[in-house]
Amino acid sequence: MSRPVLLVNSVTFALKGHELLKMNGISSRIIRNTEFKAIGGCGYGLMIDSDPMVAQNILMRGGIKVIRIIQGGNLL
Amino acid sequence: MAMKTAEMVYKTRKTASELFSMDKPENVVFTQNCTHALNLLLYGLLRKGDKVVISDLEHNSVVRPLMDMEKKGLVEVKVIETSLEDHHETVKRFAEAIDEKTKLVLCTHASNVAGVVLPIKEIGEHAHKCGVYFAVDGAQSAGMIPINMKEMNIDFLCVPGHKGLYGPSGTGMLLINCDVMIDPLLKGGTGSLSNQMNMPEFYPDRLESGTQNLSGICGLNAGMNFVRNKTIERLHLHEFYLKKEAYHCLSMCNGVILYTAKPEYLDTVPVLSFNLKGKTGEESSHLLAERGFALRGGLHCAPFAHKKMGTLEQGSARISFGAFNSVNEVYRFCETIKKLQYTV
Fold this sequence. Notes:
By secondary structure, chain A is α+β, with helices and mostly antiparallel strands. Chain A has helices at residues 11-23, 34-40, 52-61; strands at 4-8, 28-31, 44-48, 66-71, 74-75. By secondary structure, chain B is of the alpha/beta class.
């Protein structure tokens, strides 16, 4: 089953986001692949198991801009 | 491997943001040293027509970039005469100098020559009341006296890694605790948004182009954790005690001219300036180097401060104390000074 991936601007935001989500009980995995590079050119993604909107809100409250949310590699 | 390294770099940003009480780890920008951080701030923030207010104790890493900008007609620089005896007077002079053209107040937290600490919290309060950014040069204070960026009204803090933070040489940081987006000194690859021709509009990437000093940053993290574990308060107490002992001894020597005021707890950093009577700073430090003591002699890249102390011609010798110095070393130093004053 494909999982949602929240794309962020940098590795720093990915690491900060990973930590923020963990603090809020959401486990995530930092990923980087060629598809993300094609979107923003060197982007990072946080792959999660839960509702991406909830995760996006947590990240935004922490000052992290989510560029896009993709599902299993497809743009939502 | 790359992700592990990125994690360590992020951890270091987090350690720094916690140590200096600021909100966003991503606003901790790694630099080569404190000079680099100060240049990055000054050239990145100031625009044509801006006025900057600084103290008369600033290091050349503040004075030279600002003189360069002033010479080019970009900024106006106002130098405030600090009062070493009366903090209220110093704050008042800063407050009076701020006008509608002022964009930035920048002052050193502590003089690298006299070791005197400036009332930065109060100066920052006045700057903020007037809607002006407040920056602090923490070269001599970071890791040596507590710095809380939020409580002390500090928007920008520039620090070296290799002094009170016990990191390696070639490391430093610019910590940004406000929303302004400053311009980079260096432009290039950041590992982010690589399809864009312009620098990213977010920190730290905007200000960190090219390969970072990764081993240095890891070392800096270890240094800051050393400081956190020991606590700044305990380190300060130790260094204060050493300075107090050295001050007491040197003030009893007729052959020594002291340029540092009697140290007060939490109102001093562990540097002490003096000369052997009839000798310049370079000569005094050379005589001590021959006897196994490594001191810095000369003007310490701070001609403003030496002018204020009346030592612009002869300079001074400066001894500094750290966590790894012992009181026995201080006593040995004092005995050497006592002998030297009668033989030179």
